[in-house]
């Protein structure tokens, strides 16, 4: 079993293995390239397609961005991400259509064991020090808005049309059509027609 296969099987994996470092390196280099370009440079947005698992025809990243793998992230149509998007996609991340990220949104589909000797361990035969991780997938539905400084942890499902308030840390599932916020993030109320801002037109 490869280290990447261990990730998808829900096993502990060695984040420092050459296999995974090589896989991540492509995304890291291309993120650097993206971040170095002017936002009006026509070659900037196509760079995303060079490392992403899948993305719709229409998308925008303000940048800077940082993906850990990129190839483990799958994004639908009409995606928008504001400044400083960080995606730790050790586990797979699925993002629906018409999703918006505010500034400083982080998706963290990875974690470490709590017991120190399980996080780092020496293989004495070759001196290699492993850094053990495990990863759970993240699912974000259609028409979701994650406001600024939201952090979503692995294993979370966010339902269609949900809004996650600024500064929230999402550790558990959020149902569709709900406003949720806080640390830890909790569903607060359903979104209704009373929330319409059409009067501002």
UniProtKB/TrEMBL annotation:
Key words of the record: Acyltransferase, Repeat, Transferase
SMART domains (alphabetical): Mac
GO molecular function: galactoside O-acetyltransferase activity
Keyword Protein transport: no
Gene3D superfamilies recorded: Hexapeptide repeat proteins
A matching Pfam family: Mac
Maltose/galactoside acetyltransferase domain: residues covered: 4-57
InterPro entries: Hexapep, Hexapep_transf_CS, LacA-like, Mac_dom, Trimer_LpxA-like_sf
Similarity remark: Belongs to the transferase hexapeptide repeat family.
Classification via PANTHER family: ACETYLTRANSFERASE YJL218W-RELATED, GALACTOSIDE O-ACETYLTRANSFERASE
Protein name in the entry: Transferase hexapeptide repeat containing protein
